[in-house]
Amino acid sequence: MISALVNFTWLPYHPVWSGLMIALSVAVIWSLTVHGRDLAER
Question: Taking the CA of residue 23 as centre, how many other CA atoms within 13 Å lie in the half-sphere pointing to its CB?
Fold first, then answer.
């Protein structure tokens, strides 16, 4: 979460790289919240 927020500060300087990192951070957070219960049950 912190990584996504920090990348917003770099958005004006490196827009493509920052956009990719924000998308990756959101995807990781989403996958952990959706599939986290599956891992906890094992």
Answer: 6
8 A C-beta contact, residue 1 and residue 25 = yes
pLDDT tens for each residue of 6-37: 888 999 999 999 999 999 999 999 988 888 77
Q: How far apart are the first and last CA of the chain?
A: 26
Q: What is the 3-state secondary structure (H, E, C) of 7-22?
A: HHHHCCCCHHHHHHHH
Residue 14 main-chain phi, psi, to 5 deg: -135, 75
Q: Do residues 4 and 26 make contact, with C-beta atoms less than 8 angstroms apart?
A: yes
* Cα gap 26→3, rounded to integer Å: 10
